[in-house]
Amino acid sequence: MRVSVPATSANMGPGFDTLGIALKMKNQVVIKPSKFHSVSLKGEGSNNPALKDNNMFISIFNDFYHNLSTKRRNFRFEFFNEVPMSRGLGSSSAVIVSAIASAYAIEGIDLPKKKLLNLALAYENHPDNITPAVMGGFNVATVQDNEVKFIKKDMPKYLKAIVVIPNRPISTHMSRKTLPYKYSKDDAVYNLSHSSLLTAAFMTENWEMLRVASLDKFHQKYRMKQMPELFEVQKASLKAGSLMSTLSGSGSTFFSIAHADDAKRIEKELRVKFPHFRVFITDFDNYGARVDK
Ligand SMILES: Nc1ncnc2c1ncn2[C@@H]1O[C@H](COP(=O)(O)OP(=O)(O)OP(=O)(O)O)[C@@H](O)[C@H]1O
Ligand SMILES: N[C@@H](CCO)C(=O)O
Asked: Which parts of the sequence bind ATP (predicted)?
């Protein structure tokens, strides 16, 4: 059985804890019944031996498996990870969503995507990463009465994402601590109006509006001060022709959207300017979490 879950970019500027989009980079796990428990790891995290013993996936999988099953089978878990850890590309959401989906699938229990999303909410209480991780596409989401309420929009193929991934991680937990405790009414209105405009721009495919609509006063500047070079990345990406360029999730990755015709040139310019960062183009994912039995 194979489960795959895409990377995500959350916030998208002003949509703090609300907006997110799925990318065509994924974490996959293949699970096979086996005499003994064992773990193999390829790709991101494979140089971290602790992940073989103390792995968030295994602990969430076991929580669900032990609840769903009376049997006590052992499994071999083979991880193929493309989502870098603690870089603002939703690695924790990918792990949470894939672990829950795997526990249900291995027991042959059907798990509708909306239920998967609401189960994931217990592990990540803001819905901006888990919603696109489960559903794919661009999503606007909120939590009401312990349920995720969301609207999804598929992304067109003629737009691409360009990601700039620094070599230094930023943990979401630590990054949230750098944010102000309170915001002024002016800043609240600023973000509310920009986030609404950004959502409307995605829904109506008014891509030229993204540059203005993606401006934010809630979180980016506070977080980017930890890695001031990110201000340069944002400036360079917009100057090179990106439609929008925002801190991805809690950082450290920078996420830009561009027309396919411009993406190669923007990627090249960013690679030349920031040779010490990983820069590449990726498509958007419109499917989300996938289980192949
Ligand atoms: N492949 C993985 N296997 C096991 N645990 C992982 C894996 N990837 C991420 N994690 C867990 O998730 C944590 C990273 O979560 P964190 O929320 O800080 O970053 P992120 O999800 O990548 O970023 P963001 O939420 O800003 O998009 C890691 O410290 C680790 O505990
Ligand atoms: N909305 C979250 C995304 C990262 O999980 C944040 O900015 O902290």
From this structure: 84-94
Q: Which ligand gives the minimal distance to the CA of 96?
A: 1
Q: Indicate whether residue 126 lines ligand 2 (CB < 6 A).
A: yes
ipTM entry: 0.98
Q: Are residues 256 and 213 in the same domain?
A: yes
CATH code of the domain containing 67? 3.30.230.10
Residue 127 alpha carbon to ligand 2 centre in Å:
9
At 50, is the pLDDT very low, low, confident or very high (cuts 50, 70, 90)? confident
Q: Could you tell me what percent of the chain has a pLDDT over 70? A: 100
Co-location of 196 and 251 in the same domain: yes
Which ligand has its closest atom nearest to the C-alpha of 125? 2
Q: State the Cα–Cα distance between residues 78 and 98, nearest whole angstrom.
A: 13
Q: Write out pLDDT tens, residues 272-285.
A: 999 999 999 999 99
Phi, psi of 5 (to 5 degrees): -135, 135
Q: Detail the residues annotated as belonging to a binding site for ATP.
A: 84-94
H or E stretch covering 24: strand 19-34
Boundaries of domain holding 58: 2-154+286-292
